[in-house]
Amino acid sequence: MTSTTQPLAGKVALITGASKGIGAATALELASLGARVAINYSSDAKPAEELVAKIGSADKAIAIKANAGDVKELERLVQETVAWSGGKIDILIPNAGIALMRNVEQTTEEDFQRTYDLNVKGPYFLVQKALPYLPKGAHVVLLSTSLCASSTITPNYLLYVTSKGAVEQMTRVLAKDLGTKGINVNAIAPGPMATDLFFQGKSQELVDTIASGNPFKRLGQPSEIAKAIAYLSGEGGSWVNGQILRVNGGMTVGN
């Protein structure tokens, strides 16, 4: 029986792209609720190792380097996680992603391949490789974007949003499939977030304009997304399946 302060005690979470931004905030949130966390990173070990140290002992968190867009690397990531965890993954969060701003005329085949490898192929095959280790009651939480429901979207988001549209369809159909095994599948779709990735290449004027378009007149914080992910990863999400939760302060409403 879990306590009210540690509702995820005994649970094991694997998060890709977890050394920074939303992934790091989610690792900290789930660890604070009692989960053991496998923190995947792609190249820079320092932030991942610092995050592990912040969470605590080697039994509570581990950093694993792997390319989240490569199937063989994903298989190794899963195997290293279950070797560390004792053979299971209760919470799977394919968070790693890339946001190349390209309209149809600007998109190269290389751009398309990079985006779909990390944003679509990665989550798809991470679920496949982890499935033998997901027990009944496990949760898969994918990452989309509220831009999939925005009517004011600009053409340069085409490549990014088409990949996230694939993730939303993946969520809906996987929920029907894995639900028969007692596994919940949902997606979080954030709005604009105060992360290094979001600020990159944007002027302060542009950032302020984007923030002003939200009813709350601000950007979201990674910790706010992390709490929503935690909700779907625990008992609160037990009867939530196949849903896209748009966590954006009212930037979009409805579907």
From TrEMBL:
Keyword annotations from UniProtKB, A to Z: NADP, Oxidoreductase
Pfam name, any one: adh_short_C2
Gene Ontology molecular function: any one: oxidoreductase activity, acting on CH-OH group of donors
Top-level taxon of origin: Eukaryota
UniProt keyword annotation of NADP present: yes
Protein family according to the UniProt entry: Belongs to the short-chain dehydrogenases/reductases (SDR) family.
Matches recorded under PANTHER family: NADPH-DEPENDENT ALDEHYDE REDUCTASE-LIKE PROTEIN, CHLOROPLASTIC-RELATED, RE15974P
Name of the molecule in the record: NAD(P)-binding protein
